[in-house]
Amino acid sequence: MRRRAVLAGIPAMLMADAAMAQPAGLDFRIIRAGSEVGRHSVRFREQAGVLEAVSDVRIEVKLMGFTVFRYRHETLEAWRGDRLQALESRLDKNGTRTECSARATGGAVLLRAAGGEARLPAQAAPMTWWRMATLRPGVPLIDPRKGEAVAPELRITPASGGSRVVVIGGEGADVLYDAAGTWVGFATTGEDGSAVRYERA
């Protein structure tokens, strides 16, 4: 995925004005059945008032030396302030590849995937976990793996000096953020029913 492809077409006025804070990169080990099976990293780059977030998830599960599950998901987001400007997602799951994209247009976000196009509210945002402000009531959510709008139930509570967001719907998720809003923990259920959790690398 190329940054130029995502940023192309964003109006010049959206690339200017006040710069936003650039968070540090994030790195997690993905743990299943007590063993590391992959990594999830997020890298950030701020340019002319637009924050780019590149997420890379790589998972490989082996059984008796043979790879039985392989997963690679790359997403590239461009944000200006609290509004998503562009999204590109590419998923390779056991050799089956899917893609989707989204772009701010007027007062909406246009989502494109294999199943067609959907016009979403301007506040729509992808569930890529690193951005705590995305997971709050009233924010229309996009599942970039499937390229579709989703509406899970969100339960938000204080936790260990920060916040905990429990996502109910689909495979579900338990997401932790520290007092500064930095993503620090994650747990979910794998397709085979196994417990999957993240540890900071």
UniProtKB/TrEMBL annotation:
Q: Which residues form the signal peptide?
A: 1-21
Keyword flag Signal: yes
Keyword list, A-Z = Signal
| Any Pfam family the entry gives | DUF6134
Checking InterPro entries in the record gives: DUF6134
The protein in question is named SH3 domain-containing protein
